[in-house]
Amino acid sequence: MDFQAIIPQLGPYISETVEKDPNICQKSLSEQFKKLLFDPLNKIRRTDVPDPSKALVLVIDALDECEGDGIVKRIIEFLGQLAGVDLNMRIFTTSRPEAPIKAGFEDLKRDHKDISLHNIQEPTIKDDISIFLRYEFEKIRKTRKLGSNWPRGGTIVTLADMTVPLFISAATLCRFIGDNRFSVHQRLENVLKFRNASFASKLDQTYRPIFGQILAGIDKLEEEELIRGFQEIVGTIILLESPLGLTSLSILLNIEEEQPHCRLDQFQSVINVSEDPRTPIQIYHLSFRDYLLDRNNHTD
């Protein structure tokens, strides 16, 4: 959330901090939090907000992906301190139920509410995913200049059934189907082929169409070469403790930079590769790593 866009008065306070201490971003996490977030927010009053009756919602996604249990615990402590500012603020975090995170919230001396996704009724989740799919498909339809009858009736319901309860599955399929380099109709058809696959787990239904698209129409030798390249490059990415950029990855693997670039270009719906070769390569969601490392998915 861009606080300054919602509360313009924050700008001068943050700018003043940076001017006084240009190296603030290299300081400790607690000092950054205090000087860049807590202190500026503490100087703002509810009357400074455009609509004081509406709550400001700070969303922190994938808290479990922060590096280090100690850092995660500190972040949770910081979030608790924000309850002391004079603003109508709510904080919404998402995370896997990792032990350090659960312990951090248990130690939090502030009221908080835990909601476990597996305790939410499936029809509710399906409705939310359906709304998301309709929104994303409408964007694809407009971008690709498709007819008003696209997608055909029942498609959203089918995709919602395939992906519930995993929003990441729905998001991944939308990126896969909407990729401007490929036919929307063909990619949607490839995804729908797996709707009745009894063997398919939710993640299998999400990721298998991606591999099917890449391997389609190539001979055995090309397939073997593609698989070797995938194991070397993508396998390294998902196992690294800290992500590397394209240049560093190429040096590590002792290969030309063009090779990982070509391989990863086919996986843009699941792997985020920046145009800057120095920027770390990131998988969009840890479920892709889990899927690749799950032996139950290695049936063919």
Descriptive account of the structure:
The protein is mostly helical. The strands form 2 sheets. Strands 1-2 form a two-stranded parallel ribbon. The chain folds into 3 domains: 3-114, no CATH class; 120-215, no CATH class; 220-297, Winged helix-like DNA-binding domain superfamily/Winged helix DNA-binding domain (Arc Repressor Mutant, subunit A). Helix 6 packs across helix 7 (155-163). Helices cover 53% and strands 5% of the residues. 16% of the residues are buried. It comes from Orbilia oligospora. This is Nephrocystin 3-like N-terminal domain-containing protein. Keywords: Repeat. Residues 7-96 form the Nephrocystin 3-like N-terminal domain.
Secondary structure category: mainly alpha
Distance between the termini: 43 Å
Mean pLDDT level: 85
List SSEs in N-to-C order: HHHEHEHHHHHHHHHEEH
* Unreliable segments of 5+ consecutive residues: none
Q: List the total number of helices.
A: 14
Query: How would the global form be characterised?
Result: globular
Helix content: 40-55%
- Main beta sheet: 2 strands, parallel
Strand order of the largest sheet: 1-2
Indicate the radius of gyration in whole angstroms.
23 Å
Number of strand segments: 4
Strand content: under 5%
> How many domains is the backbone divided into?
3
Features:
300 residues, two-stranded parallel ribbon, 4 strands, mainly alpha, Arc Repressor Mutant, subunit A
Task: Give me the secondary-structure topology.
Blueprint: H1 3-6, H2 10-20, H3 29-42, E1 56-60, H4 69-81, E2 89-93, H5 99-107, H6 122-143, H7 155-163, H8 167-177, H9 184-192, H10 202-215, H11 220-239, H12 246-253, H13 258-265, E3 271-272, E4 282-283, H14 286-293
Helix pairs in contact: 2-3, 3-4, 4-5, 6-7, 6-8, 8-10, 11-13
